Structure formats: C-alpha cells, structure tokens
Amino acid sequence: MDVKFFHCLIDALKVAGCCIYEDSIPILYNSLIKLQSENHFNSVYLWGRIETSSIDYYIAYGHQKDLIENRIFFYTQNMLEWDIMPTDWSTLETDMVQKLKTKLYGDPRYVETIDNSNKKSQETTEYAIAPNVVLKFDDYGEGGEEDNMNNVESLTYNDIVSVTAETDEIIETESAINDSSNLKLSIKEEDRLAITVQMIDNESHIVPRGFLYKLPDGNITKAPYFKGLDYSAIGNENNFLHINQQYCQPKDLKSDVRLDYNASIDFLQSIVNDIPKGCWASRLYSNRYFIIHNLLWPGAVYVQDMNTGIHGYFYNGYGLKNLDLPFMI
After folding, report:
1. pLDDT tens per residue, range 34-60
2. What is the Cα–Cα distance from 77 to 56, expressed in whole angstroms?
C-alpha cells in the first residue's frame, strides 16, 4: 500500500478486517515519509503488520529503480525507528520457520530453540563386525578341522588390530548419527520475521494487471496513467498478478498466453493457477470496496476503492500459514 494513498484506504482496510489504530495512522505516515527521504526511495509502501505475543511488528519496503528486484524491507515496533531486515539466511533456517506453529514473541533478539530429535522407537540396527569380514560355516571334512586350526594359528597381530579398528569406526559413525539427530536448532526472531515476510510476500502479494509496466531496458516501474480495474475486469482472477520475481517468466507461454497479451504488462503470472484451487476469495462491498482475501495466508488482502481506483496490498495476521486449507475447501 503506497504511503501516498495511505489515508484513502483506511476505510477499505477496516472493511477487510485489517484494523489500524487511529492514533497510529499519523505516526506511521510521518515515519514512512521520513524513511523515504532518508533512503532516497522513489516510493515507500506499508506492507503490513504481524501480530505477536507482546509488541507487533510493522513492515514496510521501498525501492529506487526496479519495483520488484530492488525492494528493501524494513520493520519497526515503535513506529518511529525503522530497522532493515536481514536478507541472508540458510535453507535450514527456512525449513525451521516452516515447521514453527507458534506466534512471534515480539522481541527481535529472542532466540527460539527447536528440538530436532527424531528417535525411532522399538527399532534396532545390527551391523556386521566389519564390512570386509565374511563368515562362512562349512562342514568339516577329512582334515578340515586340522586346516582350520592351522588358519587360526596363522593369524597375526596386524590382522586382529585391523578388524578391531574397523569395528570401532562403525561404532563411532553410529554414535555421530545419533548425536546429530538429537541436536537442538535455534533461530533468532529477527531472522524468523524476515523469512516469514518473504514467504507471505511470495505467495500472497498481488497487483492488478496494468499497474506495473516493463520498460525496454528491463526495469519495472509503475504505469503512470493506471487508474485501477473497472467493474467488468475486477471479478476476473486473470487480472491479478503476483509481484514476486520468481513469477516474472511464465513457465509455458503457449498455454498461459492470453488473447489480449501485452508483453509490457503481462510479464507476471496471474493467480488463476495458484494451488490449492480456490485459495482466493473475493467480494464487492456496498458496490464500492472490492476485497480479495488469500485463504492460505489469513490476513493477506488486496483492496480497491472502485470510486477512485486507489488500490493496495496489506497483511495483518500472525504470520502463520493455513496448512489445513486443502481440507477446508
């Protein structure tokens, strides 16, 4: 939601269930304008609010040239000082965040620990004494017992030490595997917040078709004369596009191309093929406010005032994904 039209969409956000305290509106507006001037951004957007157990996080982002690739995210709790979000994290941390089902604590320095134990009950694993030792049991024939005794007597000290070393190596490997499964993984809440915002933004942040314009040099900017979707186009999911970079190149142009295809505005994928089917729910309130909810991430909404054409995206929730949605539709 562009900070320039922040005041114009307050009523639409209330209808959508995204309530912002009246006393916080002027504070947020002034701090976002200050953030834009200090960082020399072309535009600044209020992304949303993530509710926690104590103090909520307000999220915003700004950009200079490219509106998709050059976005920089910030967060604040006092609505005055904005801190930049971390952008470097491991795949292991992303997997940890996807497994968490609890609300954020409300402290960026808080460290959350996850028990990674994966114990198997009533299961035993048997190993051979050594991988190169083969046990063979044959019936003793004539002279067989004497040959076997000769083989035992011919064993040297080095042969016994070699078998013992291999056995110790197997035991150490097994203990190392058991120790790694019992490790406790930890993640800082600031990193969890950044990963959560990225996941929500990737799957639920949408813009209307025609709002973004791709220049011949490849940069993406806002269309200067776009006035929002009209009543005839607002109900079609094909007219809403994902704003994430991974959706910039359609997977199959032959099947996904539309009849009125325009390369300058149709470089993003629409939400019509999102999984699960039916994860978007739209409604027109009082023949004025059009609101489309993302059911996979409860709290993510797109709103548009049909009288003025002013529109925006906003998230207001706990940062938790509704994994039960396929069973609810």
Report:
1. 999 999 999 999 999 999 999 999 999
2. 6
